[in-house]
Amino acid sequence: MTSPLLEIDNLHVCFDTRAGTVQALRGVSLSLAPGETLGIVGESGSGKSVTAQAVMGLIDVPGRISEGEVRWQGRPLAGRNADRDARPVWGKEITMVFQNPMTSLNPLMTVGSQISEVIELHLGLSRPAARRRAAELLSSVGISGAERRLDQYPHEFSGGMRQRVMIAMGIACEPKLLIADEPTTALDVTIQAQILELMAELQEKMGLAIVLITHDLGIVAGLCHRVAVMYAGQIVETGLVDAIFENPLHPYTQGLIRSTPGLDAEEERLTAIEGAPPGLLQPPAGCSFLPRCPIGDKGCEAPQAMRIFETGMVACRKAGVPAWSEAL
After folding, report:
1. Which helix (H) or strand (E) holds 31?
2. What pTM does this model have?
3. Gyration radius (Cα) of the chain, Å
């Protein structure tokens, strides 16, 4: 069996604020195999982006990793036992495409300078060689006239083109893992499809592993091998994509799928998940979803035991019980 490329083990991330300590991640554990695509889904504030930031070593004060660790090919990358010599891994072996390319790119530097900077830093190429490599990368992500466009600034590119530039920067050093945090946000449907198709092509060509953070379950269904569902800073269910969509076990996962529109939907209105996620200053000891759960009871106030099976896990004492009014 192939050893995991990335392992996240019992990760806790806190943010110290004037109001108290926000427990943003509470015992997150995940693994990723080489060449695999893992989708992470959940509502805003569930901890998806914080998980990615922890992997990339981007948790800064007032944030901190209070427990657990991130391992890269068995090597502690973040957490209390982190290898201080592991910094070169970020940006070379693990790269990230952020949510908004306009705020991720420096508006005062040309696109070519920004791509070349990454190449010079991590690969040690000369400036002319880095520029040639940057032109090749722009061409590889579908930007025509690459040599000319190297001298243009981010505002001269459309939203979709800027995201292609970010992907070019992400693959510049031929990484083993690409983390994409909402890579299609604010793009129209046609451009979204092009970006996702580009990522799939690059994965097949380069053997990339991808962590895809998104709200869009349709994207997960079309691109990912496995999915992890997050709620209130915890993983509540993981599994193969087909299994999750055909037979979701956690009531929250069931609710997410029922609230997603489908082409063959007969109902005029979608089934919404009533209520809101709990505050993470003082998160509940038991199931965080209990106040919104249609099948929860007093027993759910106790700490939740995880049910682990061959291809995933679910954190629910009533896992598999239909939670909503109609069959999924």
Report:
1. strand 20-32
2. 0.90
3. 21
